[in-house]
Structures are given as C-alpha cells and as structure tokens.
C-alpha cells in the first residue's frame, strides 16, 4: 500500500512546489518509487500546441527526475492565475471530488510514495459552484497527513501558529514544518524556528536555504513523515 504526505503552506508563494520537488527528488534518489499529485493548478501557460502545461507538475518532474507522466499529476489544470474555485468558474470546468479521488487512487496504485501538493494555504477553496469543496475536504477524503511549509522570515510565527491552530481545530494531522528561505545564523530566523515549535508543538523538521538542490534530512526521517 502506498504512503502519502500532503504539502500545505502558510500562504501563496511560500515555496510549496519548490519543497515538493525536493521531497520527491530525495525519495527518488534514495531508490523509492515516488510520485507527485496536485488536485488543481491555476495560472498555467499554454504550449505551442495550445494545450495547457501544468507548470508545478512539470517543475517537480524536472527537478526530481521521476518518470511519472505529467498528465497523471493533476486532474484539473487552469490558465487563469486566481484561486482554483474562481478559475474553474471562469473556465467552466469545476473541480469534483470524485474526479480528484479517482486520479489520486490511480497514482497511488502505481507508486509507493505520493507527495500531494495543495493550492495556496489550507483554507483555499477548490470549488464554490454546486459542490462546495475546500482543500481541507480533499485532505480528509484522502486521509492525508500534512506538512506545513513556511517562509523563515518576518511574520512567520503568526502565520505558522494560525495555520496549525486551524488544522488542529479541523482534526487535520500535522507531521512537521519545513522552513523555506532559511539563513543559518540569522538571529530572527533562528528565533522564529524556536517560537514556531513552542507555539505549535510541532517540530521544524527541515530548513531549506535559497538555491538548495537537496534536503538536509535523512531518507529515514523523510519517509517517517508519510502515512
């Protein structure tokens, strides 16, 4: 049976895709049969043939070296660079849970480890027309343990604490926190790490510096985050 880990963030542009790519790469490099999945992607460009290219999926595939077909990584790909619920409304292709679940199960059946990336933060709506679908609904439906990605800089204590508080109120399991854009020796960022751990009771399991091409975490420690 495959194991999974959901990657959420304290907000948009904190580096979820970058971190997801490093996690998938670490798994692949250690010999694991790893895959990537994202329920919905918005803000994608079109190729020369006019077809939408799932940018996040293409990035993860490129940096990790996994052989997984890009087409299997995301069932809903949108061009408009807005929240998926609005992009799906504008483009007439609403996200449906049964489609997401079916695509996820197909990927899980073919791989031992699946990294599932969220859209935006944990409160991101995926559909608000007909079926009301939040990102957290996908997390619960697929029974996914979660990792929080946060920017290491100013403001992260509040962002991390509020995200963790909300997730706990919604009974969403948190396996760890990854600090992105981390600068070792920076007094504020080192303190942010300690304060986030204190306020959430969750360990910062990895710190990632700009330009890192590998995670500074053992394969055993990484796989222990998956369920």
Offer a concise description of the structure.
This protein is an alpha/beta fold. The protein has helices spanning 16-29, 55-64, 84-91, 97-110, 135-141, 156-169, 187-200, 219-223, and strands at 3-9, 34-38, 40-41, 76-77, 113-121, 125-129, 131-134, 146-151, 174-180, 204-207.
Draw up the topology in text:
Elements: E1 3-9, H1 16-29, E2 34-38, E3 40-41, H2 55-64, E4 76-77, H3 84-91, H4 97-110, E5 113-121, E6 125-129, E7 131-134, H5 135-141, E8 146-151, H6 156-169, E9 174-180, H7 187-200, E10 204-207, H8 219-223
Helix pairs in contact: 1-2, 6-7
Task: Give the tags.
single chain; 227 residues; alpha/beta; Rossmann fold; six-stranded parallel sheet; two-stranded parallel sheet; 38% helix; globular
CATH architecture: 3-Layer(aba) Sandwich
CATH level 1 name: Alpha Beta
CATH fold-level assignment: Rossmann fold
Low confidence ranges: none
Please state how the strands of the largest beta sheet are arranged side by side. Answer: 2-5-1-8-9-10
- Give the overall average pLDDT: 96
**Number of E strands:** 10
């Amino acid at each position: 049976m495959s194991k999974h880990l959901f990657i959420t963030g304290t907000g948009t542009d904190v580096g979820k895709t970058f971190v997801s790519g490093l996690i998938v790469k670490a798994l692949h490099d250690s010999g694991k049969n790893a895959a990537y999945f994202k329920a919905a992607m918005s803000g994608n460009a079109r190729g020369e043939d006019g077809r939408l290219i799932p940018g996040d999926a293409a990035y993860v595939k490129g940096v990790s070296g996994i052989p997984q077909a890009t087409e299997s990584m995301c069932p809903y790909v949108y061009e408009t660079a807005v929240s998926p619920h609005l992009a799906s409304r504008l483009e007439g292709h609403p996200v449906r849970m049964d489609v997401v679940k079916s695509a996820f199960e197909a990927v899980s059946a073919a791989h031992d480890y699946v990294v599932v990336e969220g859209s935006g933060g944990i409160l991101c709506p995926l559909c608000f027309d007909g079926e009301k679908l939040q990102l957290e609904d996908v997390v619960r439906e697929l029974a996914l343990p979660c990792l929080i990605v946060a920017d290491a800089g100013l403001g992260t204590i509040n962002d991390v604490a509020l995200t963790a508080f909300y997730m706990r109120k919604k009974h969403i399991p948190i396996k760890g926190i990854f600090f992105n854009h981390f600068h070792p020796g920076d007094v504020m960022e080192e303190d942010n790490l300690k304060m986030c751990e204190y306020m959430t009771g969750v360990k910062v399991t990895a710190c990632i510096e700009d330009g890192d091409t590998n995670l500074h975490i053992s394969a055993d420690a990484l796989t222990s985050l998956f369920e």
